[in-house]
C-alpha cells in the first residue's frame, strides 16, 4: 500500500497546525516523521488514521481517496503513545479485538492471537488484566494488537516515549524486525532522532507544520537541507559565513550572507602551522571519543569530538576538511 | 509476522482485507463518500430531536405561553400579546418575595452544610480502612433512598413542641413543657433544612468521592515529593482537581433543596416557591402559577450557568499512571473512632425514619416519648388494601421502565456531547440539563395540560390543515393521554426529569476515559455502535449503573409527577398512595401510611444493596487485576 499526502492543511481553530505537507510513502517502507513537539507530526499521523479530517489537500492509499472515510473503514493499525490498552479486557481479548471485528473464525483467531503474543513474548500473559502489566508489557500488547490484523498501514505515535532506555532499545529492534518481516507500509512519528536514524527507510523532518527535508537517514544527517534540520539532528557548530573564523576554515571562500556549519566529529587536530589556534576549555573523555569545547582566539566556542586525548587548558590547533563543511543560505 | 503464514491463513487475510477496505459501492471517491457512512450523530440526533421536541420543548412552550401571553381587551376585541404583567404581579407581592427568599436560604444553607459534611467523609472512605467500613458505606447509600417527605412525619414526632425530645428533656428537668423549645424553628423552616441536609449529603459525598478517586495519586505524590505538607497538598492539589466534582454535586444539591416540594408540604410550610407552585397547579387557568414557574427557571438556570463555568476543569487524565491509590488501615482506637463518628452521623440521619418505623407499629402514641401501645396490624393492612398493593406494583413498573429509558438516553447524549462536534451541540447540552431546572411538579403540570387537553391533534391539524384532524384522533394517541392511562407520560416524565443525572454520570465517565481507547477500537475496524457496545459501555458501565440506580430511586419516591399525573386509584404510584392513606380521617391513618413508607424503604434498601453488590463486583472485575 502506497500512501500519498497531497498538500495537506489542518487548522485547529485559527491555529494552522499543518501548512501544506506533501509526501509519498512507498509500499513496505518504514517512514519516519521527525520533529520537535508541536511541529504537527502527530496531526499528520492522526489524519492518516482518520481521526482528523483535513481542511485542505488529499490523502490517498494507493489510488483510493481517503478524505471522509471514517477511521474504522481504513484498515490502518495505530500503536498509541499511551498504549490505549482496554482495561476491562484481558490481554488476549485486547489482541483478539480487531480479529473479532473482522469476523475471523474462532480457531484461527486463537492461533493468530497466540502467535502474535508469542512474537512480542507476551503469550504467558494472555489471561492477565492490563492493570497488572508494566508499561513495556502494555506496549508489547499494543504492538501485537496492531500487527495481528495485518493492516494496510501501520502507524506508530511515539510508541517508545514512555519506556525506559533499555526497554526502548529492545522494542526498537522488535519493531524493526517485525516491520521488516511483514513489509507493511508504516509511518512512525517521533522526536527521538536516534530512533529515526536507526530504524527509518526514509525520514521526513517537520518543523512548524511544514516538511523541511525528506531523505535517507544518511542524507538527513550528512546533507541537511536547512539550518533547522542540521541543528535538530545531531550536534552542529554554526558560524556566520562573514566571520573571520568561518573564512579561515573555509579557505578564503565566501564572505557571503549565509551560514557555514560542521559536525563536532569533523574537527581534526593539526600541527601549529597548519591549523587554527584554540584553547580547550572543557573536556569529557568517554573512551571512544573525547568531547571537548574549544575556544578560538576571537572567543568563539566550538564543539569537537576528538580521537586524541586533550586536557582542559591545553593549547591546540585544529581544522575542518572542506568537504565536510555544510552551507546554508540563511 | 507474515513470514511463516500458511496458505489458508493468507487467503483468509485477503478476504478480511477486502471486507475491511473494499468501498461499499464502486466508483465514487473523494468527499462525497462521507455521506454513506453511519455515524453516531446521524443515527441518534434525529430521534433525540423528536424526543426533546415532543417531551420538553412543546410542553415548555405551553408553559411559557401561559406565563407571558396576556389576553387583553382592546377596542372590544380580545387580543393576546406578550407581557410581563404576571411577573409584576409576583414582585409586587411581598408574600411571593418572601417565598423566594426562603427557598434560596434553604438551598444555600443545605448546600454549604452538605459540602462540609461530605468532604471529610469522602476522604475518609477513600483513603482509610476502618472497622465496618463496607456496612457503613451501604448505610450511607441507604439514606439516599429514604424518602424525606415520609421522614418528615418521624422528625415531627420527635422534634415538635410536644414531641419526644422535649418530653425527654422535660423529664430530665431541662425544658419546661409550658414553654417547649421550637426545634423545627419558624414554623418548620429549620426542620426543612435539617431534613434536606440529612437526605442530600450522601449525593454530595458520592460526587466528591468520585472526583477524588479519579485524581491520579501520583499528582499528590509529586506535591508531597516537592515538600508540600498534607494539608497544603490537599489545598493546592487535591481540592482544585476535585472541584469539578464538588461543583457538580453542589448544583445537584442546591436545585434539589430549592425545588423540593414534599418536605415543606409535610411541614405545612407554605412560604416556599415549590409549595406556592403546587397550590397554583390546581388552578390551571391562573397565570401566576405559570409566572412563578418561569421565575424559578431563571433562578435555577443562572445557578447552573455559574456551576458549569466554575466546574469546567478539563482534567481528563491522559496516560494516567498505573499507581494504585494507597489505603491506610486505621487500627485500634483510631479505627473505632472513625467508625463511631460515621456511625453517629448515620444514626442521626436515620432518626426521622426510625421515627417512621416506630410510628408504623404505634397503636397509640400521644404526648409520650414512645408509643404506649404497639401493634403489627398495620403491615397486614397494607397487604389487604387494594390501593396500597396496586401502588407498589405500579411504582416498580414506572421506575424500572424510566431507568431503562434513561440508560439509553444518558449514554447516547453524554457520548455525543463529550466526543462529537456538531451544530446544535450546545442546544442538546442545554436540553439535557434543562430538566434539572424543572421541578417535578412543573414538568408534570406541563405534561398534563399538554397531553390531556390537546393530545397532539389540534397543534398538528392547525399546521397541516383541518382535513388531517382525523389522523390525530386515532386510538393510539390515547396512550399519550394521562386521563385515560398515565403510564406512558408518567414513565417519560420520570425519565426526562432524571436525564441530567444520567448524562452527568455518563459525561463524567467519558471525560475520565481516554478517547484513545475508543480510537484504538475504530482504528482496528470496529464501527461506532460496536465501539460503543464493546468499549465505551463497559468502561463507563459503573457510572451508568450508578446513574440508573438514582433514576430508579427517584422515580420510586417522586412526589409531584405521581400526584399530578395520576387521577384514578388503579394508576397511583406509591407516594400518592401514602398521601391518600394519610388523608383518611381514621386515627390509625398515620400508622398505615408509615407502614407503607417502611415497606417502600425496605424494598428500596434491598434493591440498593443488591445493586451496590453488583456494582462492587463489577468495578472489581473492571479495574483490578
What does the model show?
The complex is a heterodimer of chains A (330) and B (625). Chain A is of the alpha+beta class. Chain A is built from nine helices and 18 strands. Chain A has helices at residues 41-49, 91-101, 106-119, 135-147, 165-182, 193-199, 217-222, 227-232, 244-249, and strands at residues 3-12, 15-25, 30-34, 56-61, 64-65, 76-79, 153-157, 185-190, 202-207, 210-215, 237-240, 259-262, 267-269, 276-285, 290-296, 301-306, 315-320, 326-328. In chain A, helix 2 packs across helix 3, helix 2 runs parallel beside helix 4 (135-147) and helix 3 packs across helix 4. The relative contact order of chain A is 0.12. Chain B is mostly helical and 625 residues long. Chain B starts with 6 loop residues before the first helix and ends with a helix. Chain B has 25 helices and six strands. Chain B is globular, with a radius of gyration of 27 Å. Residues 1-5, 17-35, 454-461 and 617-625 of chain B have low confidence and may be disordered. The interface between A and B is large, with 54 and 48 residues.
Q: What is the averaged pLDDT score of chain A?
A: 89
Low-confidence stretches of chain A are none
What is the CA–CA distance across the termini of chain A?
A: 38 Å
Number of helices of chain B: 25
Give me the CATH fold name of the largest domain in chain A.
Rossmann fold
How many helical stretches of chain A?
A: 9
Range of strand content of chain A: 25-35%
Provide the succession of SSEs of chain A: EEEHEEEHHHEHEHEEHHEHEEEEEEE
CATH architecture assignment of the largest domain in chain A: 3-Layer(aba) Sandwich
| Gross morphology of chain B | globular
**Low-confidence stretches of chain B at least 5 residues in length (pLDDT < 50)?**
1-5, 17-35, 454-461, 617-625
As a percent range, the share of strand residues of chain B is under 5%
Main pleated-sheet profile of chain B: 2 strands, antiparallel
Amino acid at each position: 500500500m502506497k500512501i500519498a499526502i497531497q498538500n495537506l492543511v489542518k487548522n485547529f481553530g485559527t491555529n494552522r497546525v499543518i501548512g501544506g505537507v506533501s509526501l509519498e510513502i512507498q509500499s513496505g517502507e518504514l517512514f519516519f516523521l521527525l520533529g520537535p513537539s508541536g511541529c504537527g507530526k502527530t496531526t499528520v499521523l492522526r489524519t492518516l488514521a482518520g481521526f482528523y479530517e483535513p481542511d485542505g489537500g488529499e490523502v490517498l492509499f494507493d489510488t483510493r481517496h481517503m478524505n471522509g472515510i471514517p477511521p474504522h473503514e481504513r484498515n490502518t493499525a495505530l500503536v498509541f503513545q499511551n498504549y490505549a490498552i482496554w482495561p476491562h479486557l484481558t490481554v488476549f481479548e485486547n489482541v483478539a479485538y480487531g480479529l473479532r471485528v473482522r469476523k475471523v473464525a474462532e480457531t484461527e483467531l486463537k492461533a493468530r492471537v497466540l502467535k502474535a503474543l508469542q512474537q512480542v513474548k507476551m503469550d504467558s500473559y494472555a489471561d492477565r488484566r492490563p492493570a497488572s502489566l508494566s508499561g513495556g508489557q502494555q506496549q508489547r500488547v499494543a504492538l501485537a494488537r496492531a500487527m495481528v490484523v495485518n493492516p494496510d498501514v501501520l502507524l506508530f505515535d511515539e510508541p517508545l516515549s514512555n519506556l525506559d532506555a533499555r526497554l526502548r532499545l529492545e522494542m526498537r529492534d522488535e519493531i524493526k524486525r517485525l516491520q521488516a518481516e511483514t513489509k507493511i507500509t508504516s509511518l512512525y512519528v517521533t522526536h527521538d532522532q536516534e530512533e529515526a536514524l536507526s530504524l527509518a527507510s526514509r525520514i521526513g523532518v517537520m518543523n512548524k507544520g511544514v516538511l523541511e527535508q525528506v531523505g535517507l537517514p544518511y542524507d538527513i544527517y550528512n546533507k541537511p537541507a536547512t539550518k533547522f534540520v542540521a541543528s535538530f539532528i545531531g550536534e552542529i557548530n554554526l558560524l556566520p559565513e562573514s566571520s573571520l573564523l568561518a573564512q579561515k576554515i573555509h579557505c578564503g571562500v565566501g564572505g557571503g550572507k549565509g551560514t557555514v556549519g560542521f559536525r563536532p566529529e569533523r574537527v581534526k587536530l593539526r600541527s601549529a602551522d597548519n591549523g587554527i589556534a584554540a584553547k580547550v576549555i572543557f573536556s569529557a573523555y568517554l573512551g571512544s571519543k573525547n568531547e571537548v569545547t574549544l575556544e578560538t582566539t576571537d572567543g568563539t566556542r566550538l564543539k569537537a569530538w576528538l580521537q586524541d586525548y586533550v586536557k582542559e587548558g591545553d593549547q591546540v590547533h585544529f581544522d575542518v576538511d572542506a568537504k565536510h563543511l555544510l552551507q546554508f543560505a540563511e | 509476522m507474515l513470514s511463516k503464514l500458511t496458505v489458508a491463513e493468507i487467503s483468509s487475510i485477503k478476504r478480511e482485507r477486502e471486507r475491511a477496505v473494499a468501498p461499499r459501492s464502486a466508483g465514487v471517491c473523494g468527499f462525497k463518500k462521507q455521506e454513506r457512512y453511519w455515524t453516531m450523530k446521524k443515527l441518534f440526533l434525529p430521534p433525540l430531536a423528536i424526543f426533546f421536541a415532543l417531551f420538553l420543548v412543546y410542553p415548555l412552550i405551553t408553559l411559557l405561553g401561559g406565563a407571558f401571553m396576556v389576553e387583553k381587551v382592546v377596542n372590544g376585541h380580545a387580543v393576546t400579546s406578550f407581557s410581563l404583567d404576571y411577573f409584576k404581579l409576583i414582585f409586587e407581592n411581598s408574600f411571593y418575595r418572601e417565598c423566594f427568599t426562603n427557598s434560596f436560604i434553604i438551598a444555600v444553607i443545605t448546600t454549604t452544610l452538605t459540602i462540609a459534611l461530605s468532604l471529610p467523609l469522602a476522604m475518609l472512605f477513600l483513603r482509610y480502612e476502618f472497622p465496618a467500613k463496607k456496612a457503613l458505606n451501604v448505610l450511607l447509600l441507604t439514606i439516599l433512598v429514604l424518602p424525606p417527605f415520609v421522614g418528615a412525619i418521624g422528625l415531627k414526632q420527635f422534634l415538635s413542641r410536644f414531641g419526644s425530645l422535649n418530653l425527654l428533656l422535660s423529664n430530665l428537668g431541662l425544658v419546661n413543657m409550658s414553654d417547649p423549645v421550637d426545634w423545627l424553628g419558624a414554623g418548620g423552616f429549620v426542620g426543612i433544612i435539617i431534613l434536606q441536609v440529612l437526605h442530600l449529603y450522601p449525593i454530595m459525598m458520592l460526587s466528591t468521592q468520585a472526583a477524588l478517586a479519579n485524581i491520579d495519586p501520583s499528582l499528590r505524590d509529586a506535591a508531597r515529593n516537592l515538600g508540600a505538607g498534607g494539608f497544603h497538598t490537599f489545598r493546592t492539589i487535591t481540592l482544585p482537581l476535585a472541584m469539578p466534582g464538588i461543583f457538580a454535586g453542589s448544583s445537584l444539591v442546591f436545585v434539589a433543596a430549592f425545588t423540593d416540594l414534599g418536605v415543606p408540604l409535610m411541614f405545612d410550610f407554605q412560604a416556599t416557591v415549590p409549595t406556592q407552585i403546587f397550590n397554583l397547579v390546581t388552578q390551571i387557568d391562573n397565570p401566576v402559577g405559570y409566572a412563578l414557574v418561569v421565575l424559578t427557571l431563571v433562578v435555577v438556570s443562572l445557578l447552573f450557568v455559574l456551576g458549569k463555568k466554575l466546574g469546567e476543569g478539563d482534567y481528563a487524565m491522559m496516560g494516567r499512571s498505573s499507581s494504585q491509590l494507597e489505603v491506610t488501615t486505621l487500627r485500634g482506637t483510631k479505627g473505632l473512632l472513625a467508625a463511631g463518628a460515621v456511625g453517629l452521623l448515620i444514626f442521626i440521619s436515620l432518626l426521622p425514619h426510625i421515627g417512621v418505623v416506630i410510628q408504623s407499629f404505634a397503636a397509640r402514641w400521644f404526648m409520650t416519648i414512645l408509643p404506649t401501645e404497639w401493634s403489627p396490624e398495620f403491615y397486614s393492612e397494607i397487604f389487604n388494601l387494594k390501593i396500597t398493593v396496586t401502588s407498589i406494583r405500579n411504582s416498580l413498573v414506572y421506575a424500572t421502565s424510566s431507568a431503562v429509558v434513561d440508560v439509553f438516553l444518558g449514554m447516547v447524549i453524554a457520548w455525543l456531547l463529550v466526543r462529537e462536534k456538531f451544530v446544535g451541540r450546545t442546544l442538546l447540552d442545554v436540553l439535557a440539563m434543562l430538566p434539572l431546572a424543572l421541578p417535578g411538579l412543573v414538568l408534570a403540570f406541563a405534561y398534563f395540560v399538554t397531553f390531556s387537553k390537546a393530545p397532539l391533534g389540534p397543534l398538528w391539524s392547525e399546521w397541516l390543515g383541518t382535513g388531517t384532524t382525523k389522523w390525530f384522533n386515532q386510538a393510539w394517541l390515547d396512550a399519550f393521554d394521562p386521563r385515560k392511562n398515565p403510564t406512558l407520560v408518567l414513565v417519560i416524565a420520570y425519565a426526562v426529569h432524571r436525564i441530567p443525572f444520567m448524562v452527568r454520570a455518563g459525561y463524567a465517565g467519558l471525560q475520565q476515559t481516554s478517547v484513545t481507547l475508543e480510537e484504538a477500537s475504530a482504528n482496528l475496524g470496529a464501527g461506532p455502535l460496536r465501539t460503543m457496545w464493546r468499549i465505551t459501555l463497559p468502561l463507563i458501565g459503573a457510572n451508568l449503573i450508578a446513574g440508573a440506580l438514582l433514576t430508579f430511586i427517584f422515580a420510586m419516591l417522586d412526589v409531584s409527577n405521581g400526584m399530578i399525573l395520576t387521577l384514578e386509584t388503579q394508576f397511583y404510584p406509591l407516594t400518592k398512595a401514602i398521601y391518600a392513606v394519610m388523608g383518611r380521617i381514621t386515627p390509625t391513618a398515620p400508622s398505615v401510611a408509615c407502614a407503607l413508607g417502611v415497606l417502600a424503604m425496605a424494598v428500596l434498601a434491598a434493591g440498593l444493596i443488591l445493586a451496590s453488590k453488583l456494582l462492587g463486583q463489577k468495578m472489581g472485575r473492571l479495574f483490578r487485576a
